[in-house]
Specification:
It holds the Pfam family DUF2909. The protein has about 60 residues and is mainly α. It is built from 2 helices and no strands. The protein has one domain.
Length: about 60
């Protein structure tokens, strides 16, 4: 149960980071480091999400 909550939180954080990056792109016309930082954060969250999913499937907490 805790794993599913962590996966949902990481996914929600990824969507929030995507929205923030889009806002930075629109406001700064892509000439800001904030967009790059947002992308780095989103990539880190994606790696964490993949790790959580692999962990869950490997140990049988997700799926059948």
């Amino acid at each position: 149960m805790l794993l599913k909550i962590l996966i949902a939180l990481v996914f929600t954080a990824m969507v929030a980071s995507l929205a923030a990056g889009a806002g930075f792109l629109i406001r700064d016309q892509g000439h800001s480091r904030r967009l790059l930082i947002s992308l780095k954060f989103r990539v880190s969250l994606a790696a964490a999400l993949l790790a959580l999913l692999f962990y869950g499937f490997y140990f049988g907490e997700l799926g059948g």
